[in-house]
C-alpha cells in the first residue's frame, strides 16, 4: 500500500513517517509511505500513484484544499488523529491506514 | 475552559485560517520562503566578515568588502528573488504559466527603479532598493503583474498561435500583451509622470514595520501563534504569512547596518522569535520535555524520550499532539504564558543592549543555544539568555506538569484496576 503524508513543511511528518514504517514492518504490513510539505502535496499526489493521503493534524484547516487535490486523482484523504501524530502514536495511525487497504 | 476552546475554534480560527489560505497571501508566503536558502547562506557571509574572535576579525578586516559580495547579491537583493517567487506562485495558483508570471513580476518590480549612468561603471541601479527595504514594493508589483496576466487571459487578450507551434513558444507569445501593458504602465507612472512608486509603497507599509519592532509587536504574534497551536493548528505558518515580510524587512535593516559597520537598529527580526522564544518549538516546550524525561508517569516518560531529539531541533509536534498540549486546559496556560515571558525578557535585554541584536538567519533546526549564538553574530551572552529563558519556562511549566502527571497516574491506576476487575 502506498501512502502520502502531508504536514506544513514536511519536517515533523518525517519523524512520524519513520515510526509508522517501523510499526508496519513489525506487523508485516506492506507499506510505502512518504512525507511532503503542503506546497508539494498536489504535484506529488498526481505522479506518485498513491492509495491514500493522510493529513497531519496541524494543517487540518487546509483539509478542503487537500480534499480537492485528492479528488481529482481519486485518492481518499484521512485526517490523522492528534494523539497519533507522535513517534509513539504510530500504531494508531497504522490502524487508520489499514482501514483503506484492499 | 471548554467554552474558551469553543470561542477559539469558532471566533479566532475561521478568520485566521481563511486569511492564511487567501490566494495572494499564500503566494507571498511561498514566494518569500523560496528565497530562504539564499538568505540563510547569504547572511552567513557576515559572520565570515565579522567573526566573533578578535584575532580573526583583525585578520579578515582588509578583505571585508570582498567577503560581503555574496551577501550583497543574495540577501542584499532578496526582494528581487522574492518578486519572481511571488509571481511564479501566484500565477501557478491561477493555473497560468508560472514562468511567465515570475518573469513579468520581476520585470514590473525592476521597472520601478531608475538606472543611473556612471562614468566608470556604465548603467547601475542601487542594490539597496532590491533588498529588504524594497520587499513590499516587490510584493505589490508582483501582484499587479500577475493580475494583468490573468485579466488578459480572461478577456482573451492574447496572441493566438497555430496548433503546430510548440507549447513553450506559444506561452511566450501569450504573455506579450500583458508584458506590453505592464511595461508601458510602470514606465509612464515612474518615468514620464516621475511618480516614485517605491517611496510611495514603502511609506504605506512603514508603520507596519515600525510596529513590528515594538514590545506589543513582539507579543501579539507570540500570543496568536500559541493560541492557534493550542487548537492544534500550525500557528507559525499562519501568522508568518502576514508577519514574515515584516520580519525580513527588520532583518535586512540589521544586516545592512552591520555590513556598514553601524549599530543594529532592530530588535525583532525573525531570529528573535526562533532562538529566544520558540526554544524547542512553538510554546517553548523544551523545558516541558525535560520534565517529562524524569516523569513518574510511564506515558509521559516514554513521550519525553521520543520527543527530546526532535525538541532539540525545535520540532515539537510530538509534544503538542502527544502530551497533548492542544485542547488541554492545563498545558495551555504555560504554553502561552511562557513564550510571552521569554519575549518580554529578550526584548528588554536587547533594548538595553545587554545582549546583541540578531542579524543572521541560521537554519531553524539547530539547537537554540547554537542558533542564538550565530544569530547574534557570536555573542556568548545570547547563550546565557537562551538558558535563562529555558529555566524560566521550565519553572512555569512545572506546576501544570505535576498536576497533569498526577491526573495521568491516577487514570492509569484506575484503568489497571478496571482491567483487573474485568478479568477477575
Overview of the structural elements:
The complex is a heterodimer of chains A (102) and B (424). In chain A, 44% of the residues lie in helices and 19% in strands. Chain A is an alpha/beta fold and 102 residues long. In chain A, strands 2-1-3-4 form a 4-stranded parallel beta sheet, with helices on both faces. Chain A is globular and about 35 Å long. The N and C termini of chain A lie close together (9 Å). Chain B has 424 residues and is an all-alpha fold. Chain B has 2 domains: 25-212, no CATH class; 215-423, no CATH class. Chain B is built from 21 helices and 2 strands. In chain B, helix 2 (23-33) packs across helix 7, helix 9 packs across helix 11 (176-192) and helix 15 runs antiparallel to helix 20 (368-375). The model of chain B has no long low-confidence stretch (mean pLDDT 90). The chains are: A alpha/beta (102), B mainly alpha (424). Chain A binds chain B through residues 7-9, 11-12, 15-16, 39, 56-62, 65, 82-89, and chain B through 13, 17, 20-21, 30, 229, 232-234, 236-238, 302-303, 306-307, 310, 315, 317-322, 324, 326, 365.
Topology:
The complex is a heterodimer of chains A (102) and B (424).
Chain A: E1 2-7, H1 12-26, E2 32-37, H2 38-48, E3 52-55, H3 63-72, E4 77-79, H4 90-98
Parallel strand pairs in A: 1-2, 1-3, 3-4
Helix pairs in contact in A: 1-4
Chain B: H1 2-21, H2 23-33, H3 36-49, H4 54-60, H5 64-67, H6 69-72, H7 78-93, H8 98-110, E1 116-118, E2 122-124, H9 135-154, H10 167-174, H11 176-192, H12 197-211, H13 215-230, H14 235-259, H15 270-276, H16 286-293, H17 298-312, H18 317-322, H19 329-351, H20 368-375, H21 380-423
Antiparallel strand pairs in B: 1-2
Helix pairs in contact in B: 1-14, 2-7, 2-14, 7-8, 7-9, 8-9, 9-11, 13-14, 13-19, 15-20, 16-17, 16-21, 19-21, 20-21
Summarize the structure.
Chain A has four helices and four strands. Helix content of chain A is 44%, strand content 19%.
Amino acid at each position: 500500500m502506498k501512502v502520502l503524508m502531508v504536514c506544513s513543511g514536511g519536517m515533523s511528518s518525517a519523524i512520524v513517517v519513520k515510526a509508522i514504517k517501523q510499526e508496519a514492518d513489525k506487523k508485516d504490513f506492506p507499506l510505502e509511505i512518504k512525507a511532503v510539505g503542503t506546497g508539494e502535496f498536489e504535484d506529488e499526489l498526481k505522479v506518485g500513484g498513491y492509495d491514500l493521503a493522510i493529513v497531519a493534524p496541524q494543517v487540518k484547516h487546509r483539509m478542503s484544499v487537500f480534499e480537492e487535490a485528492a479528488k481529482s486523482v481519486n485518492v481518499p484523504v484521512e485526517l490523522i488523529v492528534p494523539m497519533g501524530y507522535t513517534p509513539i502514536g504510530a500504531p494508531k495511525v497504522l490502524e487508520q491506514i489499514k482501514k483503506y487497504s484492499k | 475552559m471548554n467554552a474558551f476552546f469553543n470561542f477559539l475554534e469558532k471566533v479566532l480560527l475561521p478568520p485566521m485560517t481563511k486569511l492564511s489560505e487567501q490566494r495572494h497571501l499564500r503566494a507571498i508566503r511561498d514566494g518569500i520562503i523560496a528565497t530562504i536558502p539564499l538568505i540563510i547562506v547569504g547572511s552567513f557571509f557576515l559572520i565570515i566578515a565579522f567573526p566573533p574572535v578578535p584575532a580573526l576579525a583583525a585578520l579578515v578586516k582588509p578583505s571585508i568588502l570582498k567577503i560581503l559580495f555574496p551577501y550583497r547579491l543574495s540577501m542584499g537583493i532578496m526582494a528581487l528573488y522574492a518578486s519572481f517567487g511571488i509571481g511564479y506562485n501566484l500565477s501557478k495558483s491561477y493555473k497560468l504559466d508560472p514562468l511567465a508570471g515570475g518573469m513579468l513580476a520581476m520585470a514590473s518590480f525592476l521597472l520601478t527603479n531608475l538606472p543611473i549612468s556612471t562614468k566608470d561603471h556604465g548603467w547601475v541601479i542601487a542594490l539597496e532598493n532590491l533588498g529588504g527595504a524594497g520587499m513590499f514594493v516587490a510584493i505589490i508589483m508582483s501582484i499587479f503583474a500577475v493580475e494583468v496576466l490573468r485579466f488578459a487571459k480572461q478577456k482573451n487578450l492574447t496572441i493566438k498561435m497555430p496548433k503546430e507551434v510548440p507549447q513553450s513558444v506559444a506561452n511566450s507569445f501569450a504573455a506579450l500583451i500583458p508584458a506590453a501593458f505592464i511595461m508601458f504602465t510602470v514606465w509612464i507612472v515612474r518615468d514620464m509622470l516621475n511618480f516614485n512608486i517605491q517611496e510611495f509603497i514603502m511609506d504605506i507599509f512603514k508603520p507596519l514595520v515600525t510596529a513590528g519592532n515594538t514590545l506589543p509587536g513582539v507579543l501579539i504574534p507570540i500570543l496568536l501563534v500559541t493560541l492557534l497551536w493550542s487548537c492544534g493548528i500550525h500557528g507559525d505558518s499562519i501568522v508568518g504569512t502576514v508577519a514574515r515580510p515584516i520580519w525580513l524587512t527588520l532583518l535586512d535593516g540589521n544586516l545592512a547596518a552591520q555590513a556598514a559597520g553601524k549599530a543594529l537598529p532592530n530588535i525583532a527580526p525573525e531570529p528573535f522569535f526562533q532562538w529566544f522564544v520558540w526554544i524547542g518549538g512553538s510554546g517553548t516546550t523544551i523545558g516541558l520535555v525535560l520534565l517529562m524525561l524524569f516523569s513518574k508517569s510511564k506515558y509521559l516518560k516514554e513521550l519525553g524520550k521520543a520527543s527530546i531529539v526532535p525538541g532539540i531541533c525545535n520540532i515539537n509536534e510530538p509534544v503538542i499532539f502527544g502530551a497533548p498540549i492542544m485542547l488541554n486546559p492545563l498545558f495551555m496556560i504555560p504554553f502561552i504564558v511562557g513564550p510571552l515571558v521569554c519575549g518580554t525578557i529578550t526584548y528588554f535585554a536587547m533594548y538595553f543592549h545587554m545582549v546583541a541584536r540578531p542579524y543572521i538567519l541560521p537554519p531553524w533546526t539547530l539547537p537554540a543555544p547554537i542558533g542564538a549564538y550565530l544569530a547574534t553574530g557570536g555573542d556568548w551572552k545570547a547563550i546565557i539568555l537562551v538558558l535563562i529563558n529555558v529555566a524560566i519556562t521550565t519553572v512555569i511549566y512545572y506546576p501544570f506538569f505535576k498536576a497533569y502527571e498526577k491526573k495521568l497516574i491516577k487514570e492509569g491506576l484506575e484503568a489497571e484496576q478496571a482491567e483487573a476487575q474485568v478479568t477477575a
